[in-house]
Amino acid sequence: MENKTVLITGATSGIGRATAQKMSDAGARLILCGRRKEILEAFAATLSTPVHVLVFDVADKTAVFKAIEGLPPAFQAIDLLINNAGNAHGFDPVQTASLDDWDAMIDSNVKGLMYVTKAVLPQMVDRKSGHIINLGSIAGKEVYPKGSVYCSSKFAVDAFSQGLRIDLNPFGIRVGTIHPGMVHTEFSKVRFKGDTSRAEAVYEGVTPLVAEDVADALFYMASTPAHVNVADLVLLPTQQANATVVHRKK
Fold this sequence. Notes:
By secondary structure, the chain is an alpha/beta fold. Helices cover 41% and strands 16% of the residues.
């Protein structure tokens, strides 16, 4: 990844942050995107390669295009886009779920990912070169109870990635999607609206993936030779068989 320019959304914490660290260690120039400016800038200062920080909400279409179109010359030729930003909000059946939670998931997980991709694509198409990796989820492969809209958003990511790969095929641009299962990050805390005990209960009796595990897989996807595209990768902890079957040790 030496001397390549990598844009990572959702780089403030979790998978995005771990991936940024991995890419920087390998010599990549980084564009780190997120909503928490102070945290991003403090993290950027610890990295050993050139970093440019962009502060915006991926769901804000105007902000996305303004930020990416305004990149300084040294960061304009983006070699790799990692669409990591997104979250789950709420864990409720359809009939009692919050419409605000639905909007938050669709706006960030689907529309936000699409906006960032659309903003980055022109220079990749012009150069006939580039690589896009989208963060899906096991929830984009299987629907589980009380996860209908989150699962819908991740199914949409999978479908968009497949369509993107077809449309960009004539330009030599690689498109892949990674679908992690249970990962111990801020994910559950956000889903359960700050209820730490409920969030931690998700991982009881399980050795889940951690952010660095996903970062390692992303790095592998990004590091394959130019003629190789890892198009679809499902990553699970050993104790997880699918979206709903988890062997919990007592």
